[in-house]
């Protein structure tokens, strides 16, 4: 009896597992198709200097223009790619598309940097820096200074040594890195110490309630102190209001990105947005 029950339970479990795996398989097949059929899009969110009000550049953020379901946020499909070889293929598409955009803006006389989120799996591919150099060469006039790479500290996956080596190799191409979502990983301080990134990007989780949460404010002050000691530049993400920007600037944070400045937008809206911003920028003295 008990054995029978156990067996049934086991079967039940297998059916669930089967459904899950089948679902994952179908999602991956669909994502592969999306790449082949050119359904991914990059949206661009500005980064500004709070002192001068200048537009520094844009972060490229992936979207999936799904034929039936509409525009999908990365949280809805990136997790399905986690650790799958297709994740690297998508990341290559993002990198090449963002470099093409950076080259095009540069050719139009803009000096905006384009930031690209690089997943750990892509960064850890053998020859990452050589590949990047090759990509840069494919766009005449584009140099390493025109792009930045954002890496999630929570995705470095243990091999800090290798990540650090790759960062150094890319630095020879004058490509700068940002430690993204800083403060949310399990060992932020170890990453800060061992990864020579130019930027620290403060996670929006600390910014959101900074105006009324003393603990978040204390953490932000601490991050600013660390950044100074380690000689890193700081940008805050999730800057939703003018008051946030003002308070961040008062803490010594010179750069900001967030809905209060602009939401991520399709590339054809960028020049109009810039004109509007330049007419009325946020700049603190
Ligand atoms: P992230 O790199 O930390 O990017 C910032 C995310 O915060 C973006 O979400 C952006 O739309 C959102 N955001 C910006 N300002 C505000 C704000 O003021 N308030 C709030 N509530 N949110 C704000 P998005 O575009 O949904 O991207 C989510 C994450 O997905 C990104 O976080 C990044 O980790 C990942 N991601 C996006 N595109 C790519 C990509 O091309 N490659 C890789 N590997 N990851 C990507
Ligand atoms: Mg990012
Ligand atoms: Mg971030
Ligand atoms: Mg974030």
From TrEMBL:
Signal sequence coordinates: none
Residue span(s) of domain EAL: 24-278
Listed name of the protein: EAL domain-containing protein
